[in-house]
Amino acid sequence: MLSYMNRGRLFYKDVVTLALPIIAQNLITESLALVDTFMVGSLPGDAPMAAVTLANIPIFVILLLIFGLQSGASVLISQFWGKGDTDSINRVIGIGVYAAGAITVSFALIMFFFPVQFIGLFSNNDEIVAIAAEYGRIVGFSYVFNSITQVYLGAHRSMENPKLGLAVLSVSMCSNTFLNWVFIFGNLGAPALGVVGAAVGTLCARILEFIVMAVYAVCNKRFRLKPALLLRPGRELMKSYARYSTPVVLNETMWGLGTSLYPTIMGYMAGSTEILAGYAISGNIEKVCTVVVFAIAGTAAIIVGREIGAGRASTVYDTGKCLNTLAFLTGLAVGAAGILGALFFVSPVVYPLFGLSQEARDIATMMLIVTFAFLSVRSFNSTNIVGVLRGGGDVRAATITDLIPLWCFALPLSAIFGLVLHLDIFWVYMGISLENVLKFFLGVRRFRSGAWIHDVTQISYRKAEV
User: Fold this and answer.
1) Among 299, 288, 240, 298, which Cα is nearest to 73's?
2) pLDDT digits (tens, 9 = 90+) for 356-386
């Protein structure tokens, strides 16, 4: 019955080799994000943490836009890498830098000149909005540097070099944590800036991250950048990039906008300060605990794209089936361990380290238990949509599968529960989590059709564009 899982030692060695740097990178990122949350949580009251959570709603959407550009590029890059076409990879990186730079510069300017008006769209709590605005007007510029770095690191991940992202982001996150410690609390003679200090630390760390990436890009011999191709990627590849990236960017943007409405709904509920604080803590802990689960999705995209690009499309269906099953089983194991950890470790040991009220702690525990209970299907969905379907070039179906359950089911249900019926936050969070069940059945149906396998590298260039 599970004969498709018998793919030989080399296959699983390949999965582990690609996944381990992604796991380590995500673990470092999320662990240090948790440390940053702890620092902000150490400030008096729930308001500082709630404010950072609020400011991160639009930032989260921007990060997903960047991820969408990166993922759209990976659809092409992984298959070009399978063919050994490094010139086309240079062109794709150039397009990604242009797009990411334009989006993040626009966002930074909006956050700098209109922070209160913009962040005020997500909550009616004037105290939290005021604190969040001071944070957002500074931190917005950090994502200009980060977006270009992420495009370049994403390209190397698609070229089976995920260790670069681990190295660069390790430097960035360690420096971010150190600088936050300096500027939030006023250590080493610096002024104690509180929440604003967290933004200053993030901006400085992203600039350092960009410098490290740029030095590596200039010195690297495995993949050489070609400025002529980066600056003039050509119309043919721009059309192909638009064809495969636009649905992914739309997917990530609409998914990010949709999921950002969840804390917005919470921000308009009674007891919003405690709910948002609990949401921030549970979200950071969840991300640390699920790095293994979601590393499989990134690995799947690399493997599926490479196999199609190398002309081995006949074996891709069973490869995708194996990776999806592996993701489901991993999610099941991590979810069970996560529920036990939430009850017997996180609640009695971790929460007392944060300056949270008892109500915020109880909300965070509830959210963790619900999240881990649905983790097996969520893990399958992530690998199937982000890894297998996108890696196979089936970006439109992946977008539909990802967005319909969110916008047509989970969001209306959670809004009705929280804002119309005024139910407890538990029912709102259950409405959010049921999205994964509907997405699971839609994703299985599309995968079984086999219509997701496409070679996206059939591009010809005019001489004038080279």
Assistant:
1) 240
2) 788 888 999 999 999 999 999 999 999 999 8
